[in-house]
Design a protein that fits this description.
- With 564 residues, this protein is an alpha/beta fold.
- The protein is built from 23 helices and 15 strands.
- The strands form 4 sheets. A 5-stranded parallel β-sheet has the order 6-3-2-12-13. Strands 10-9-8-7-11 form a 5-stranded antiparallel β-sheet.
- Helix 3 packs antiparallel against helix 4, helix 8 packs antiparallel against helix 9 and helix 19 runs antiparallel to helix 20.
Length: 564
């Protein structure tokens, strides 16, 4: 693989204005963040976290013991356990990222975020040898938006985007309230796997890929475990630590955050509203706060906690709690409480010694709404580090762009690229060629006819008869050339459509649409290693990468003894 070009975010669709300023003009958004994402900002984040976290009530040992138990269950590699041991030490800090637990890791950018966290941890460990840095992936398993994570997109055998979903019992519900981490796969996971296999081109990597899929996603396994195990299998032993915040022991450690939210509401809400109002003067806020930014899982369904008639109540139920009753539940069953998107970063950075969070454009934007909330909870917001943004150019796409001299960013304006394409195809004007040919032939017959007329007038008439027959044949031939050109236009148009489906499917950037399974099936597990080696984590442009991988059928992720 190699980077073909770097495109400014402002030249591409789908990037919010705050993110563009954050990356390229940080001074414009300085008021919304604790630290810039440069070297100075990261160093200041380290020193700040060293003082605050090590003086907090959090026990590193207790956190790490829970992480060790979780990662054993997730079949993590030896490097992950070594990093967990490092995390017990006061001079070790976390580079965190996270995502919802999408099927087969969800969209491609989830893999990129994890690779960024690993790479940034390594580079910081080299830059600051007096400290250690470990990558942590926060599994957002409390989320209950099952319809967002139960499906993937791939390119099928014909090169067209296909969506494949997993549904419990094969039936789609009207409403989903169960936390996704509690969903256990049933026999219909086999239908999902087979449908995926049927839609992919069979390659030398297909058998290995589906061995790992079926090893991870099988009947009786919950979604959070399947996600983490598959992630470990395809990533290999990178040292990435997985953190499942739905774990009872982890929730017990985070109880003080929940307790403060319940005791002080709507303080968090008001802080976010005020910061959002400041942001709205120039940018569009990403999230809206609630009066209470907590959920409670009741009868296996997750409900927002609200205050009604001086009692805590659960939205969309008749269930109510006296204040003392709910606080007793917080002590006895902390695993039933979960934060919303606003309180989640607070929980995350209360639990872990986070010095940087690797986030996408929307995350970078909504963290800006939370700065005052961090202060309210006695925490320092970490550096919010923009994840790498990538488009993978496959061979057929790259050849098409080169053949028709189309730049990558032109692909996002179909009208412009279509006109340019038709102009290239129609450089040969069939009508003009035949008209010029006929005119020149007429001139030749006239000139030579006059000369031959001096020799034998009868022969001149014979020449004209032959000429008329030839012109008649040319008349039959011209429509065939015109038809051939029209077919060429149609073929080229279909090729353009295929290119757009690969690069900009459903008017969405590739990394936000396709699943890693398509690439692993086509290029093997070297695809992830090559991607990791190619992307430049500290270059904040959209990186367009040409894929050309030497295929190696032996995959370390499958045969590495460190993967249990």
């Amino acid at each position: 693989m190699q980077i073909k070009m770097n495109i400014p975010y402002a030249s591409l669709p789908g990037y919010n204005g705050l993110y563009i300023d954050y990356v390229h003009h940080f001074d414009k958004v300085r008021a919304f963040y604790e630290f810039p994402f440069d070297n100075e900002g990261i160093f200041n984040s380290i020193t700040s976290k060293k003082e605050s976290y090590n003086n907090s009530a959090i026990s590193r040992i207790e956190v790490c013991e829970s992480l060790k138990t979780q990662n054993k269950f997730f079949n993590s590699g030896e490097s992950a356990f070594l990093n967990i041991e490092f995390l017990k030490e006061p001079d070790t800090f976390a580079v965190v990222t996270g995502q919802q637990i999408g099927m087969l890791t969800g969209n491609l950018y989830t893999i990129i975020k994890a690779l960024n966290a690993v790479d940034l941890s390594k580079s910081l460990s080299l830059k600051y040898p007096e400290f250690k840095f470990v990558p942590v992936f926060w599994l957002e398993a409390d989320d209950h938006d099952f319809q967002e994570i139960n499906n993937i997109n791939i390119l099928n055998k014909e090169g067209h985007p296909v969506n494949i979903s997993y549904l419990q019992k094969g039936i789609e519900k009207e409403r989903y309230l169960t936390p996704t981490g509690k969903i256990v796969l049933d026999e219909y996971i086999n239908t999902f796997s087979q449908t995926l296999k049927d839609n992919l081109v069979q390659t030398e990597f297909t058998e290995q890929l589906f061995y790992l899929i079926n090893r991870s996603y099988k009947e009786g396994i919950d979604l959070v475990t399947a996600f983490a195990r598959f992630f470990n299998y395809i990533l290999g032993d990178t040292g990435l630590i997985f953190c499942n915040p739905t774990d009872r022991e982890i929730k017990k450690i985070m109880t003080p955050v929940f307790e403060k939210e319940l005791n002080t509401f709507p303080a968090t809400c008001e802080l976010v509203v005020n910061k959002s109002a400041e942001m709205e003067l120039k940018y569009e806020p990403q999230v809206k706060p609630r009066s209470i930014n907590l959920f409670y899982t009741y009868n296996d369904n997750r409900h927002l906690i609200e205050m009604k008639d001086d009692k805590f109540s659960l939205r969309n139920t008749r269930q109510k709690f006296e204040k003392e009753e709910l606080f007793n539940l917080l002590v006895s069953n902390p695993e039933n409480f979960s934060p919303n998107v606003i309180l989640r970063p607070i929980c995350q950075d209360y639990l872990l010694p986070t010095i940087a969070y690797v986030g996408g454009p929307s995350e970078v934007a909504y963290f800006g709404q939370f700065r005052d909330v961090y202060d309210f909870y006695g925490l320092k917001m970490p550096v919010i580090f923009p994840r790498t943004s990538v488009t993978v150019l496959e061979g057929k796409v790259e050849s098409f762009l080169e053949k028709y001299d189309i730049s990558f960013d032109e692909l996002f304006d179909e009208e412009i690229v279509s006109k340019k394409l038709l102009g290239k195809v129609n450089e040969i004007n069939v009508e003009e060629i035949f008209t010029n040919f006929t005119d020149e032939l007429n001139a030749l017959i006239y000139t030579y006819g006059n000369e031959l007329d001096k020799v034998d007038r009868n022969l001149v008439q014979a020449l004209k008869n032959k000429y008329d027959k030839f012109i008649e044949n040319i008349g039959f031939l011209k429509p065939k050339f015109v038809d051939s050109q029209m077919k060429q236009n149609d073929t080229t148009g279909k090729k353009l459509a295929s290119v757009l489906e690969s690069v900009y499917p459903q008017e969405t950037l590739q990394e936000r649409y396709f699943n890693i399974a398509y690439y692993l099936n086509k290029y093997g597990f070297d695809f992830i290693r090559e991607l990791s080696n190619t992307i430049e984590v500290k270059k904040h442009f959209h990186q367009v990468i040409s894929v050309s991988i030497k295929k190696d059928i032996e995959q370390p992720a499958l045969f590495d003894n460190s993967i249990r």
